[in-house]
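Re: weekly structure request thread

Next one in the queue (95 aa):
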Amino acid sequence: MSQTFIEIYTIDVLREFINSAVKEAVTSLIPIAEEKKDNPLLTKKEAAKYLGVSIVTMSKYVKQGQIKAVTISGSRQRFWQEDLDKSLKIMRCYR
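Done, posted below.
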């Protein structure tokens, strides 16, 4: 049988624990955010504008597999700008 130990801390000590944990988590995310600055995640409307096509055409390209989409929160789609650039180069080669 394992034993459980309960330690009692003051509010100030708990606050310090939480602050240090949050700082550690945020600083670990900063490099990830900086890496993605030159490769933003675009909405379907932004991606369509970027490619110079309508939203309907964007949907058609995604459905046909010509453009890679990232699905978030159910059915919303987002597009990495880098993926759009790659798809555009490929599509131009076949025209």
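The chain has four helices and three strands. The mean pLDDT is 84.
Next request, please.
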